[in-house]
DNA sequence: CACTTGACCTGTCCGC
DNA sequence: TGCGGACAGGTCAAGT
């Protein structure tokens, strides 16, 4: 899915595109993608106004004037794409092939605003969801009660990272980075990229890490996430932002999907293996066990 | 408890 | 071409 940088990019886009718009109607064709009762969305989504779009971990929160919010998880293949009435996606338009023909067969939910513009929730694999709930109850969701701190928050530093990893000492470092209750927002791409930056083998057990490792790893996580946000995230297959644009981070990635290519640091061949049951990319020379 | 595996889905790619 | 299996950015429930 969209990881932290992709969700952040979508959030920024939506804050430019849908603030103060009023919902006119909603339609959906896959109930699990929109698990809300008809009376709820008629009362608290229709005719309510979008006030603010926020992000926590990989989750988007659209605050509505009804005191309800849409809580959205895009999981692996979810997209949130805005399309207004006047933009023409004619031949030659850069986003034509991506959003010109929406809705399409992957469109699960369509939110229509009263000015005729629409927000499409597309999701090929149907893992994602868009749930309506009272804004004050969001913090009580199990996920939000357990989720770890935001890695780019001012309150987080390498010592926080070390403390968060304490209870994971018998897990691999990669599995721990993917665990949202340890640290929020990191997924498979940025786990591999930051471990390469820190020269740490993904299968190393957390219990063997030294303070120096945490210092380096924390710095790499911040660098990698910030770089990706500045590049609009990573587009591997499905990801596009709220305007239909792809992200360009993977052109700068060092190991993710780079198996068979030389390591940009030492020239040894990058390999792909399996750690924590996930495809894992690393340089076997720089990242020793 | 901590940790791993299977399930949720569709689509694509690769080997036979 | 067709078919089976593995795999894909995430998370949860159920297993050990």
**Could you state the order of secondary-structure elements as H and E?**
HEHEEEEHEEEHHHHHEE
Radius of gyration: 20 Å
| Contiguous uncertain segments of 5+ residues | none
Helix percentage: 25-40%
Number of helical runs? 8
Structural class of the helices, strands and pairings?
Answer: alpha+beta
Strand order of the largest sheet: 1-6-7-5
The number of E-state strands comes to 10
Question: Main β-sheet: number of strands, strand sense, barrel status?
Answer: 4 strands, antiparallel
- Broad shape: globular
Short description:
Helix content is 26%, strand content 21%. With 289 residues, it is α+β, with helices and mostly antiparallel strands.
Can you put this structure into words, describing what you see?
- By secondary structure, the chain is an alpha+beta fold.
- It has eight helices and ten strands.
- Strands 1-6-7-5 form a four-stranded antiparallel sheet, covered by helices on one side. Strands 2-3-4-8 form a four-stranded antiparallel sheet, covered by helices on one side. Strands 9-10 form a two-stranded antiparallel ribbon.
- About 40% of the residues are buried.
- The model has no long low-confidence stretch (mean pLDDT about 95).
- It binds a DNA duplex (16 and 16 nucleotides) through loops.
């Amino acid at each position: 899915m969209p990881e932290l940088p992709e969700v952040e990019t979508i959030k920024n886009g939506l804050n430019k595109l849908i603030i103060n718009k009023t919902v006119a109607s909603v339609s959906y064709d896959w109930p699990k993608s929109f698990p809300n009762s008809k009376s709820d969305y008629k009362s608290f989504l229709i005719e309510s106004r979008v006030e603010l779009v926020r992000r926590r971990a990989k989750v988007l929160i659209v605050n509505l004037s009804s005191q309800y919010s849409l809580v959205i998880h895009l999981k692996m293949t979810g997209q949130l794409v805005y399309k207004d009435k006047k933009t023409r996606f004619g031949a030659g338009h850069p986003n034509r092939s991506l959003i010109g023909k929406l809705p399409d067969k992957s469109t699960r939910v369509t939110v229509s605003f009263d000015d005729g513009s629409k927000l499409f929730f597309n999701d090929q694999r149907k893992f994602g969801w868009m749930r309506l709930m009272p804004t004050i109850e969001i913090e009580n969701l199990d996920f939000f009660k357990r989720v770890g701190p935001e890695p780019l928050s001012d309150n987080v530093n390498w010592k926080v990272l070390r403390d968060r990893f304490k209870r994971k000492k018998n897990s691999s470092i990669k599995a721990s980075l993917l665990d949202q209750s340890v640290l929020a927002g990191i997924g498979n791409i940025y786990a591999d990229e930051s471990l390469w930056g820190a020269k740490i083998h993904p299968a190393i057990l957390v219990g063997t890490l030294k303070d120096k490792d945490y210092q380096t790893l924390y710095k790499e996580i911040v660098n990698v996430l910030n770089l990706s946000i500045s590049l609009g995230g990573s587009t591997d297959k499905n990801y596009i932002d709220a305007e239909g644009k792809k992200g360009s981070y993977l052109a700068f990635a060092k190991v993710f999907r780079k198996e068979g290519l030389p390591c940009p640091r030492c020239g040894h061949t990058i390999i792909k293996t399996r750690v924590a049951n996930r495809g894992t990319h690393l340089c076997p020379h720089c990242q020793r066990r």
